[in-house]
Amino acid sequence: MKNHHTFSLLALLSAAALFHPTGAHNNNPSAAANSSCTDFIRISCNATLYPDLCYTSLAGYASTVQADPARLARVAVAVSLSRARRTAKYLSNLSRTIDYGGDHRAAAALHDCSSVFGDAVDQILDSLRQMRHLGSTSAGGETLRFQMSNVQTWMSAALTNEDTCTDGFEDISDGAVKTAVNDRVVKVKEVTSNALALVNSYAAKVTAP
């Protein structure tokens, strides 16, 4: 498994200056222009399963996103990565320190959850790296269509891995461990689902025949 902490979120996004929320600079667009940018995000979020969460998690980056669907998808993937990394770290720490009280099934479920969540982090990271180089032809001659297909595949796989985590607790008796894991993982799944929806929306725009 890749090192999940090799790249910080800020380092990954620095080239595109994506993590400068609205209000962070004095030279932001006018209030009217910024309102138009937030409207763009709100309308775009209607394509997701969790539009309110989508808007609240991304509206702070309106001045960076502007009305660019590629930037919006990239920011959404970056936000998903940040949430997934924090949860992966939480799960890893929890699996090492918690007292299961002899509940070996819960211990196994948490171990498996931590493992697949680490895989999800790797897949979202791969997606963000690809999103940062859209349109640039690699040595292998990758086209934009192929690049977006990669991102869609990786984000879908990440969401599947996050689902696998909670699925592993379905047959486990309710308790503190199950509740703590499900509460955190469900929130990340929703953010990842939204990011995938925005990626799909952008891909449909740029890869249509």
UniProtKB/TrEMBL annotation:
Keywords of this entry: Signal
Keyword Signal set for record: yes
One Gene Ontology molecular-function label: pectinesterase inhibitor activity
Domain Pectinesterase inhibitor, chain residue ranges per copy: 36-198
Signal peptide range: 1-24
Keyword Cell division: no
Protein name, as recorded: Plant invertase/pectin methylesterase inhibitor superfamily protein
Organism encoding this protein: Actinidia rufa
